[in-house]
């Protein structure tokens, strides 16, 4: 069984100093509590900071032994680094920015340097522990540079990354001075996971816009490999929460609470202390609810459970003061002798107490302003085994995407929260049960185990895909064989695509003109009487003529609509019509209007909608819509659609590069055929080649070609090798 190394800022255990002695305590927070149960069930080691300065644990052999017995490896961090890294860039820059609080974010170079230093320390520790077959799973925003640093140290390692907080939209993310370094850091992983599809989309958008990498269907073609990004909504340990009714400790605790709360209905609020959780706004909404619904006075209690968090950060200290004040104010305003509307607990609770509160609460009020996921909402729902209880959930928590049967609210709308509270307290039991059963079914199936397993499965399948791509890669031995086959041949045919194969893509088709060096290379190839070179392109004939008309090559324009033999003139193989354009053109125009950055290219017998410069997600979406829309229109017009890289092309049926390639192939007795192409349209060429031909895809991705090369520059260097040898 392969070993898993989990790497996160904090270990699931924290070393705490109490009266001069060090103690090992379980860590709080979503990641630690969520992953711990799964971690125990597999062969894992956990690498992270133990919550205390390097100097203090030096020589503490008992403490170290205790951590190691739990398979935990502490990363030593100095106190100043912890301050600038954890309390600094993590809590004062990345956390607020990624949670859409840009005005709270501080951009300081010393913070950034500490971030680089700490990520490097982590990389060194992990590299020292990792064995070749290990799976390394890095967690969260504290360690976004780590995947790249690991890739540099362990080039072949299997590395996954999961972000537990939201990935913000491009407009927010771009504010970060070190945005490109963060993206490059993450792309050191093979798989980057997020809680929701939206966060994944934001990340892909930023990768495409800031780094310029190709992004399609969750796959990023980075400089030298493909990386996948996908959504994996984190689940909980469902069994643990749903079996609370059979947990004697939790039941005893529930009875104790019940006695104290009397007949009051219970509204529960549970969070770490954080401004993203919207606790003050929630309290104000509760106060408004009491104002509007006096009949609930003395009938409800809000249990406000707040876990201390980031207690050394100024903003959190202030938030605590604000909460203390608000609770006092509301209790003072609405309370009576014998009834206190808010019960305020500022501490961490053991599992059985928390579970008891979940199980007795009539309503859970979960209203974060922004939350990557929010496990509290899931834990509460899982505990409701009799199906009774109402969840009020903010739409800006990742969990809202899965828990649509909750009462979904906008956390900034206090009126709406107040109304939701009244609705929840008056909801018929049958409706509560119906809503909860649907959510429970989902949470039971997609629990934390399933979440982690799916992430790891996808990570391994990404690795496999990368391996297949490398195996197809034309290695130096095969390159030599190809060159020697070419040299020994009497009749060689080279079928070469142009855009994306001999030159990289550029955002405007007219800008991809061949340079002098490429033209010289093609000319040298054609100088040999035993070689025939054919450029098979999707471009229009006027462009091909102006670029390559002076060379002694065969030319194929518009994927085979037009053909020009060596030394001959342009001709069409079939009688083609173009009167259909007047029907299709206006449709494409309306897509241009609705998709900024896209444009139409008109060729003699085809129309092309390009969306390379459009927002990638919008482009993909519009392309799908266009294809659906056009399929009805073109059905009777003897036309068909071709999807290339960021293009949708409409042309006459039966025209494709393969038909033209066959024509050339059948013309002579070639003893060497080489075909180079990069996209979907070149697959038609690859398919008609004899099995002995050298078919090579330029770039990554599925292909029927026998081999692959990573870039146009590799393709031209292969051609240069042929010129040199002949
Ligand atoms: P957190 O911001 O910590 O996590 P959350 O997902 O709600 O938020 O997890 C809190 C965890 O702490 C829960 O498992 C809960 O049971 C526990 N907890 C809360 N109050 C407690 C108390 N008083 N005593 C003991 N335990 C308590 C981050 C992101 C979230 C994301 C998680 C997981 O901010 O959006 O859901 O990671 O990815």
**Cα radius of gyration in angstroms:** 31 Å
Q: Please state roughly what percent of the residues sit in beta strands, choosing from under 5%, 5-15%, 15-25%, 25-35%, 35-45% or over 45%.
A: 15-25%
Bound molecules: adenosine-5'-diphosphate-glucose
* Count of strand segments: 29
Your description of this structure?
- It is a single chain.
- With 726 residues, the protein is α/β, with parallel strands linked by helices.
- The protein is built from 26 helices and 29 strands.
- The protein has a nine-stranded mixed beta sheet with strand order 5-4-1-6-7-8-11-10-9, sandwiched between helices. It has an eight-stranded mixed beta sheet with strand order 22-21-20-19-18-27-28-29, sandwiched between helices. It has a six-stranded parallel beta sheet with strand order 14-13-12-15-16-17, sandwiched between helices.
- α4 crosses α5 and α5 (109-129) crosses α6 (146-153).
- The relative contact order is 0.07.
- Residues 28-31, 33-34, 164-165, 234, 270, 272, 305, 307, 348-349, 354, 371-376, 379 line the site of adenosine-5'-diphosphate-glucose.
- The site of adenosine-5'-diphosphate-glucose has 23 residues, from α1, β12, β13 and α15.
Compact summary:
The protein is 45% helix and 20% strand.
Task: For the structure shown, list the relevant keywords.
eight-stranded mixed beta sheet, 45% helix, 26 helices, alpha/beta, binds adenosine-5'-diphosphate-glucose, 20% strand, 726 residues
């Amino acid at each position: 069984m392969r070993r898993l190394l989990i790497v996160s800022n904090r270990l699931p255990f924290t070393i705490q100093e109490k009266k001069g002695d060090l103690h090992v305590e379980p860590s709080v927070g979503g990641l630690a509590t969520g992953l711990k149960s799964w971690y125990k069930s597999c062969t894992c080691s956990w690498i992270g900071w133990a919550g205390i300065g390097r100097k203090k644990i030096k020589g503490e052999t008992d403490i170290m032994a205790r951590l190691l017995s739990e398979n935990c490896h502490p990363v030593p961090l100095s106190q100043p680094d912890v301050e600038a890294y954890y309390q600094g860039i993590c809590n004062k820059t990345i956390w607020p920015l990624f949670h859409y609080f840009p005005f709270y974010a501080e951009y300081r170079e010393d913070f950034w340097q500490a971030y680089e230093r700490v990520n490097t320390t982590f990389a060194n520790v992990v590299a020292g522990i990792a064995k070749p077959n290990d799976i390394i799973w890095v967690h969260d925003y504290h360690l976004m540079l780590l995947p790249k640093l690991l890739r540099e140290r362990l080039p072949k390692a299997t590395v996954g990354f999961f972000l537990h907080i939201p990935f913000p939209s491009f407009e927010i993310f771009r504010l970060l001075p070190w945005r490109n370094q963060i993206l490059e850091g993450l792309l050191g992983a093979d798989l980057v996971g997020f809680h929701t599809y939206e966060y994944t989309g934001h990340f892909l958008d930023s990768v495409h816009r800031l780094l310029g990498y190709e992004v399609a269907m969750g796959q990023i073609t980075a400089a030298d490999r493909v990386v996948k990004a996908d959504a994996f909504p984190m689940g909980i340990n469902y069994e643990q929460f749903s079996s609370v009714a059979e947990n004697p400790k939790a039941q005893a605790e529930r009875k104790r609470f019940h006695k104290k709360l009397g007949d009051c209905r219970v509204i529960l609020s549970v969070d770490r202390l954080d401004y993203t959780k919207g606790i003050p706004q929630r309290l104000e909404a509760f106060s408004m609810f009491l104002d509007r619904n006096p009949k609930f006075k003395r009938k409800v209690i809000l249990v406000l459970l707040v876990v201390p968090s980031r207690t050394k950060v100024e903003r959190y200290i202030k938030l605590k003061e604000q909460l203390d004040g608000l609770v006092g104010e509301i209790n003072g305003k609405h309370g009576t002798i014998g009834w206190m509307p808010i019960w305020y607990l500022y501490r961490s609770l053991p599992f059985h107490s928390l579970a008891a509160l979940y199980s007795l609460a009539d309503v859970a009020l979960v209203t974060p302003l922004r939350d990557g996921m929010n496990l509290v909402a899931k834990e509460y729902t899982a505990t409701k085994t009799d199906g009774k209880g109402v969840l009020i959930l903010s739409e800006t928590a990742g969990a809202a995407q899965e828990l649509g049967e909750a009462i979904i609210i906008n956390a900034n709308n206090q009126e709406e929260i107040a109304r939701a509270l009244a609705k929840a307290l008056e909801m018929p039991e049958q409706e509560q049960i119906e809503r909860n059963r649907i959510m429970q079914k989902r949470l039971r199936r997609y629990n934390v185990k399933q979440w982690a397993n799916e992430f790891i499965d996808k990570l391994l399948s990404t690795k496999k895909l990368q391996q297949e791509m490398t195996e197809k890669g034309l290695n130096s031995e095969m390159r030599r064989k190809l060159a020697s086959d070419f040299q020994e041949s009497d009749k060689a045919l080279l079928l070469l695509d142009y855009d994306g194969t001999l030159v990289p893509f550029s955002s405007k088709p007219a800008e991809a003109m061949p340079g002098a060096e490429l033209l010289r290379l093609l000319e040298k190839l054609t100088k040999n009487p035993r070689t025939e070179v054919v450029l098979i392109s999707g471009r229009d004939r006027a462009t091909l003529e102006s670029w390559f008309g002076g060379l002694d090559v065969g030319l194929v324009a518009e994927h085979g609509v037009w053909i020009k033999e060596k030394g001959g003139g342009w001709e069409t193989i079939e009688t083609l019509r173009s009167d259909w354009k007047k029907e299709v053109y206006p449709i494409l125009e309306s897509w241009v209007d609705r998709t900024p950055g896209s444009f139409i290219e008109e060729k003699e017998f085809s129309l092309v909608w390009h969306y390379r410069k459009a927002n990638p997600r919008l482009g993909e979406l519009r392309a799908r819509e266009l294809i659906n829309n056009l399929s009805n229109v073109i059905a009777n017009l003897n036309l068909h659609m071709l999807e290339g890289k960021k293009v949708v092309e409409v042309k006459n049926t039966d025209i494709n590069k393969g038909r033209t390639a066959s024509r050339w192939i059948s013309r002579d007795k070639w003893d060497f055929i080489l075909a180079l192409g990069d996209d979907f349209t070149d697959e038609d060429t690859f398919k008609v080649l004899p099995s002995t031909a050298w078919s090579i895809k330029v770039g990554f991705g599925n292909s029927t070609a026998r081999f692959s090369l990573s870039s146009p520059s590799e393709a031209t260097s292969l051609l240069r090798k042929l010129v040199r040898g002949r």
